[in-house]
Specification:
The chain has helices spanning 3-35, 45-67, 73-76, 80-103, 112-135, 149-175, 181-203, 209-234. By secondary structure, it is mainly alpha-helical.
Length: 237
């Protein structure tokens, strides 16, 4: 076989392969078009935030009603310090929730608003921690609360109040296919932990700063760190 015939056969073979590729691609496109379904539009982050916060409040109310509020609840709600601490956790939870649903929307970059909200929520928690740490007298005032049976019991009850909302939140976020997984998981657990701390304040009568620091504020930091560390696994889609 001459060199020209060999070259001609090669060109014919390349043309046939190209035609086969085009046909395969066309068939694949047609198949995808036939199987495609309209994408359900994602609701506004603010709307979804409101719905989830409403859900959390309902579950906390049910949990406190079932368990029973702290015996000095009438006195506690008249105490400015209690109102300030509870209000701080409520504000932190609301702001972190809005940031979480902002992060649930696939974006190349994180919005400035989201960073501001996360900063505000974290600052509120940090200010509460510093206040309790200082009022407890430092590390020496925390030693008695490292192993506290009541604190452990309240911890479990508080977690049970928000377990279902927490699962629902992660399910919704994962379904939204976020792009910044560690940030989204960290923000979600910041919101969840803030509402956890809020629920504990309604059922536990202990107001000692050292106790509050160890059993209501330190868990928030632990939850957020776990969310950032495990975000890629928790929200992988």
């Amino acid at each position: 076989m001459s060199e020209e015939e060999t070259k001609k056969d090669g060109e014919i073979q390349e043309q046939m392969n190209s035609e086969d590729t085009i046909d395969s691609t066309s068939l694949l496109i047609d198949d995808l078009v036939q199987k495609s379904r309209p994408v359900k539009p994602v609701k506004c982050p603010n709307t979804r935030s409101f719905l989830w916060i409403f859900m959390v409040i309902i579950f906390i109310t049910i949990g406190v009603s079932f368990h029973g509020a702290r015996h000095d609840f009438d006195e506690a709600i008249m105490n400015p310090l209690f109102l300030m601490q509870a209000g701080a956790m409520l504000i932190s939870g609301i702001i972190a929730t809005i940031a979480t649903f902002d992060l649930s929307i696939p974006r190349e970059k994180i919005r400035t608003r989201t960073c501001v909200f996360l900063g505000l929520s974290s600052s509120v928690v940090l200010a509460s921690q510093i206040h309790c740490f200082v009022m407890s007298g430092g590390i020496s005032g925390l030693v008695d609360y490292f192993f506290h049976m009541i604190g452990f019991q309240v911890l479990l009850k508080g977690l049970s109040f928000i377990a279902i909302p927490a699962i629902a939140l992660f399910w919704v976020i994962r379904k939204s296919a976020p792009t910044h997984l560690p940030w989204a998981a960290g923000a979600a657990l910041l919101a969840i932990a803030s509402f956890f701390s809020l629920s504990c304040k309604f059922i536990c009568p202990i107001n000692e700063p050292g106790y509050l620091f160890m059993w209501q504020y330190v868990p928030i930091v632990i939850f957020v760190c776990l969310g950032v560390a495990l975000g890629r696994r928790l929200l992988r889609w």
